[in-house]
Amino acid sequence: MYKFASHLSLSKWELDALLYRVQDVGKSKAEVAAKRVMERVSGVNIEPHFCRIEDKEIEFYSQFHIIVLGLDSIEARSYINSVACGFLEYDSNDNPLEETVKPMVDGGTEGFKGHARVIIPGTTPCFECNIWLFPPQVKFPLCTLAETPRTAAHCIEYAHLIKWDEIHPGKPFDADDAEHMQWIYSEALKRAELFGISGVTYSLTQGVVKNIIPAIASTNAIISAACALEAFKLFSGCSKNVSNYLTYNGLEGTHIKVTEFVRDKDCLVCGPGTLIELDTSSTLAEFIKMLEEHPKLRISKASVTHEGNNLYMQSPEVLEQMTRPNLSVPMFELLKEAPYTTVHATGMAENNGKKVSSLRKLRVAFKGTEASKMDISESS
Question: Which residues are catalytic, by number?
Answer without folding.
Answer: 143
